[in-house]
Amino acid sequence: MRTTLLFLIFISASFGAFAQSLKGKVTDEKNGSALPGVSILVQGTNTGTVTDPDGNFALSLADGNYNIVISFIGYTPQIIPATVSAGQAAPLNIALAESSEVLGEIVVTGSRSGGRSRIDSPVPVDIIPVSQITNSVGQVDINQILTYVAPSFQSSRQTISDGSDHIDPAQLRGLGPDQVLVLVNGKRRHQSSLVNVNGTVNRGTVGTDLNAIPATSVEKIEILRDGAAAQYGSDAIAGVINIILKSRTGLSGNVSYGQNVTSYDKNYIINNNKDASVNISDGGTTQIGLNYGLKIGQKGFVNITGEYVHRNATNRTGTYTGQIFPAVDGTVVDDDLLKQKNLTRNDFDMRIGNSEVKGGGIVINASIPLSEQMELYAFGQYNNKKGNAAGFYRYPNGVPAVVRPNVFAVYPNGFLPEINSDVTDISAAAGIRGKFGEWRYDLSNTFGKNDFDYFISNSVNYTQAISNANFQREFNAGGNAFLQNTINLDLGRKFEVLQGLNVALGAEQRTDKYTITAGEEASYKNYDIAAGVAAGAQVFSGFFPQNAGSHSRHGVAGYLDLEQDLTNAWVVSAALRFENYSDFGNTLNYKFSTRYKITDGIAVRTSASSGFRAPSMQQRYYARTNTLFVTQNGQQVAQESGTFTNDSKPAEILGIPKLKQETSQSYTIGTTIQISNAFELTVDAYQIYIHDRIVLTNNFNDGGNADLKAQLAAANATTANFFANAVDTRSRGIEGVLSYNTKFGKSQSLRAVLAGTFIQNRVKKGADGKPEIHASDILIQTKQVNSYFNREDLSRFEIASPRNKQSLTINYKAGKFGVMLRGVRFGEVTYWDPTIDPSKPDSWPVNTLTGNKETLDQTFGAKIVTDLALSYDLVKGVGVTIGSNNVLDVYQDKHTHSGNVSSGRFVYSRRVQQMGFNGRYLFARLSFTF
């Protein structure tokens, strides 16, 4: 420790002796006012600073010629040459012009050389200026903001899906949430501890909780749409999302409130779709965000953000048409009992919509200069949110007869069990970076942890209620935790080879730890095995003690990244990365990319890379029993399904191997076209092959195997499922962005952006047209391959997410008045029934809505969602916005099949979604910046 301290003092003193050789001031071109917080960067290096509150900056540079990159959100960036001679340079005073265009802004993701604009990048990078757009949109969390701004990004809130109701899974390019790497300020972000195990489109995956990062704390988000495992490591198959926190000084904030004001066809089954609509006002959402930045010295800062969000639940349930009460002597008595109890069928509504979530967080981002050539930086976040969601209604008719006397004494009309979540997310990163001689260095440690605890209310353990009239109604069901710690050392240097060679190399050590905490005894225990009823808390059985515990793994990596400017028009880059994991071994990956400028306004770019995704710790060790509602003979029935690890006895019995990494090959080709300063176009096509994709299998019964039957019984389960490397896939797509930006006179501006993505995801199939499934010999011999990977699983990969999405956004500004108009078209999605053989129509179930034999397959047509916002600047730095998301109150198509509707309850699909089903949302926001 003493040696390290002396070294830091020596370095600080040495660099601190240098004189300030390049000074200047940055102002607004229109009014001449000073611009604080402007980024000043020496191109091709990490040397840089930001302007102070008066717009001034100072840099210490050795004698030589430099290109100085000046960039600031909302202004057109500039690259200005500067010469330092005899330790001094002429003052560099710059006037920046306002611009809402971001294509020319400097990006840091996808290249380690620094100082490249998005349009000059050899790989496609989207820039989302979150700090600009949040004040003109109704969305309050990052997932929803990105869904409506970035066509390649998709996140839909889930419902009736256990923990997935509380953390929204997100996709890039239609791939899994765990196939995109998330960074914060360029450092790896930890994943959530939640595994999506219910019937959502991302079943079996583990994502990153982007909503744990307050939108108020974010300056911008860079989305690298290209494979980047050779640069950044595991998970970067679809691309990389880099969230860049605010570093500005001063005080800013916003207060907003909004709610859904809509109508939907709640009674379309009962009324045969006539006079079926009801008016709804729900989902009230309050957001309060505050950001304050304090300058430290000439170049340092401390920026602090606090945010609170309370989102009330929404409900788009249909009216239940099935049997409510037990029959009396074989006669259904629902109408008589409803009248006698002074109830209606509306009193038995489920809650199908957004869960309630309330909570908030604090984010700190800081940089403290130790000398002209060295800085200490740190950033971190604490977030806690509490959620409430409901499961399937337990109607009196569905309560097992053996427990009815005691259960009806407490719940005479059945009960709607609730899942209450307590999710805590923390992260902390610290490091030191600077320059030592000609080399740039960055040494850092990044820590992250996500805790997800489950508390069940308004429920019952049936086996406890058989002999206990005073049974327990609330349960601590245990939870999960995921911890990650990453140590990085990154080095870089610019060599004067041709037009410049950037060499970057580094090493990484990472530790992952996954923990399962057992629930209290009553949440999981079977108190009466002979009774033959489901054990554990209804809606979510607690984690078993035998599944509880912690599991760790370690990994080390090293990389080499080269980027060569052969000429001013041609750049090539190559990267190689080696990684070793303690649980599955080694992997070596490469990347090659190049960009060539045909003219000053036209360039072509291409890349090729290999990639991988290490199986998550959650997928390796998650184990519990949960209640699934599956479709059998056109009806939803409850099933106790146990999820077992790959090294368990049931996995051995069925011949299911241990997990290994997913591997990929990616190819991209594209062009960038800039016509004058008004029009810019980028178009990129890609193809990604992924081998050994991990899925959560469907449910296997014991098949008459006594050993397997005993294993299932010990877990209170009747079926078993596992994580497995099941299939290979191919993804193809085209992504494009066309922008137009112009000004009228002194106070008017117009910006229009048309963006779109077209996706084709396919599971590899054999000559017979059926998926090639990596099933064990035992499963093939016992004809259980369909339980390994079925039609619904196939549809989740290929057609259950929008296969295309387009958006047109128009921003008009006239003095103090502004208008934002946006239309987003979500492409069609399709559900495939896993229980039928499409080639045998005689075996199809009868659709009770039509009376015909039909599959439950359904395609839901494309929909356009229109957003409108009007803003006005009250005084300098204070503005107000009113508007509406989905102003035309558009819903996705309703179910047309009886099995999916489930006796009228599901008006809209919970299995496949485009933009959710909440309808029109009205909001108002007050924002300020001082």
UniProtKB/TrEMBL annotation:
<dbReference type="InterPro" id="IPR008969">
    <property type="entry name" value="CarboxyPept-like_regulatory"/>
</dbReference>
<protein>
    <submittedName>
        <fullName>Collagen-binding protein</fullName>
    </submittedName>
</protein>
<dbReference type="InterPro" id="IPR012910">
    <property type="entry name" value="Plug_dom"/>
</dbReference>
<dbReference type="Pfam" id="PF07715">
    <property type="entry name" value="Plug"/>
</dbReference>
<keyword id="KW-0812">Transmembrane</keyword>
<dbReference type="InterPro" id="IPR000531">
    <property type="entry name" value="Beta-barrel_TonB"/>
</dbReference>
<dbReference type="InterPro" id="IPR037066">
    <property type="entry name" value="Plug_dom_sf"/>
</dbReference>
<keyword id="KW-1134">Transmembrane beta strand</keyword>
<dbReference type="Pfam" id="PF00593">
    <property type="entry name" value="TonB_dep_Rec_b-barrel"/>
</dbReference>
<dbReference type="InterPro" id="IPR039426">
    <property type="entry name" value="TonB-dep_rcpt-like"/>
</dbReference>
<keyword id="KW-0732">Signal</keyword>
<feature type="domain" description="TonB-dependent receptor plug">
    <location>
        <begin position="119"/>
        <end position="240"/>
    </location>
</feature>
<keyword id="KW-0813">Transport</keyword>
<keyword id="KW-0998">Cell outer membrane</keyword>
<dbReference type="InterPro" id="IPR036942">
    <property type="entry name" value="Beta-barrel_TonB_sf"/>
</dbReference>
<comment type="similarity">
    <text>Belongs to the TonB-dependent receptor family.</text>
</comment>
<feature type="signal peptide">
    <location>
        <begin position="1"/>
        <end position="19"/>
    </location>
</feature>
<keyword id="KW-0176">Collagen</keyword>
<keyword id="KW-0798">TonB box</keyword>
<feature type="domain" description="TonB-dependent receptor-like beta-barrel">
    <location>
        <begin position="383"/>
        <end position="887"/>
    </location>
</feature>
<keyword id="KW-0472">Membrane</keyword>
<dbReference type="Pfam" id="PF13715">
    <property type="entry name" value="CarbopepD_reg_2"/>
</dbReference>
